[in-house]
Write a structure and sequence with these properties.
Layout lengths: L1 E5 L4 H10 L7 E6 L7 H4 L12 E2 L2 H4 L4 E4 L6 H5 L8 E4 L9 H8 L6 H6 L1 E2 L6 H4 L4 E3 L3 H16 L8 E6 L14 H4 L4 E3 L6 H13 L6 E6 L6 E8 L6 H12 L5 E3 L17 E8 L4 E8 L3 H16 L15
Parallel strand pairs: 1-2, 1-4, 2-3, 4-5, 5-7, 6-7, 8-10, 12-13
Antiparallel strand pairs: 8-11, 9-10, 11-14, 13-14
Helix pairs in contact: 1-12, 8-10
């Protein structure tokens, strides 16, 4: 496999390189840029010294068409412009930004505040949470990788919504992310003095992942739902812990919920069902492509609490993108993704 990455100087891009380096089918990884042409990649990330002392290449569409896969890990509003000349060519495109996620382009423009990609390309794109979209991904040329918050929320919520045990309008999602979720461009909120020893909430009731989560519930579970979603920044480098609360129908038992999750994920290599809350947390998934899920039914309130933990840069970005690539080409789904979590 010959791989190109556009936007490799961001955290998602360097994580793609780390993971693809262990992929048995990947022979070449080249990095392209619109702003740092000629710079040496290991100068950007010194940890890759003597491993990736390669120059950042200028974007050339005639060259990009010769690759098997082009990943884009660029800010929202950029990928749709970069990818347009490649759509329809004999190259698989995997977008880690939000440009092709929302099927209703008017929602993209409302929530992202940017011009949407062409509707025909958005319709063509396969929005893919890997565990729920395998058949569609196998034929896709343009794959839209989900956001990190929606990945954690949807993996934990789809099974119970699909089963029809959730009372409509009761879904509240409280998510907390490490600062790498803000990208590597310095901002006031990600500045050390602001982020250290501080937890903050942002984009209250205005987060761009709200419509993506609602779309995902309808897409995968067949239920139209309005959710309340809150995002918090916590003083750690990477990881997301998402806690969702839903009221369930009368008579639902803990045993039934156990069966729902077991049936949904018992054969999934990257979803781990955790039975003990005391061993649950972001440290257990750091650096790996796992999504850990824990749930508990409060029979007093008839409210179900579901928690999901992922690494926002792996299962929430680069790891899931590679998992989607593996599905697309019929590779072992775990290829390139067998890294153990970095517990310490």
């Amino acid at each position: 496999m010959k791989i190109a990455i556009i936007g490799a100087t961001g955290y998602g891009g360097v994580e793609l390189i780390r993971l693809l380096n262990d992929h048995s089918k990947v022979e070449t990884i080249d990095v392209f840029t619109s702003s740092d042409v000629g710079a040496t990649y290991s100068d950007k990330y010194p940890s890759l010294l003597e491993r990736y002392d390669i120059p950042l290449k200028e974007i050339d569409y005639d060259v990009l068409k010769t690759y098997d896969v082009v990943f884009a890990s660029t800010p929202a509003g950029v990928t749709s412009t970069l990818f347009e000349p490649l759509i329809g060519e004999d190259v698989v495109l995997i977008d880690l930004s939000g440009d092709y996620r929302l099927k209703k382009t008017e929602l993209y423009e409302k929530w992202y505040g940017k011009k949407a990609a062409k509707k025909e390309y958005v319709d063509q794109a396969v929005y893919s949470i890997s565990e729920w979209t395998r058949d569609k991904v196998k034929e896709a040329q343009l794959i839209s990788n989900p956001g990190c918050y929606p990945t954690a929320a949807l993996l934990s919520l789809i099974p119970v919504f699909k089963e029809g045990i959730v009372i409509p309008g009761t879904c509240i999602i409280d998510s907390k992310s490490g600062v790498t979720g803000s990208g590597n461009k310095l901002s006031t909120t990600s500045h050390y003095c602001e982020a250290n020893e501080n937890m903050s909430i942002y984009k209250v009731n205005q987060h761009q992942h709200v419509p993506e989560i609602e779309q995902g519930i309808e897409m995968y579970a067949g239920k139209k739902e309005t959710v309340t979603f809150s995002a918090h920044l916590v003083p750690m480098l990477r990881g997301i812990l998402s806690t969702s609360y839903v009221n369930v129908t009368e008579g639902t038992t803990a045993e039934q919920i156990d069966e729902i999750f077991e049936r949904a994920y018992r054969d999934e290599p990257f979803v781990r069902l955790v039975k003990d809350a005391s061993i649950f947390g972001t440290n257990r998934v750091r650096g790996a492509n796992f999504c850990d899920i824990y749930w508990n039914l409060d029979e007093r309130t008839n409210r179900l609490t579901i928690m999901a933990a992922i690494d926002n840069l792996v299962k929430g970005a680069a790891g899931q993108a590679i998992q989607n690539m593996n599905i697309r080409f019929g590779f072992d789904e775990k290829d390139g993704l067998n890294q153990m979590p970095l517990y310490i």
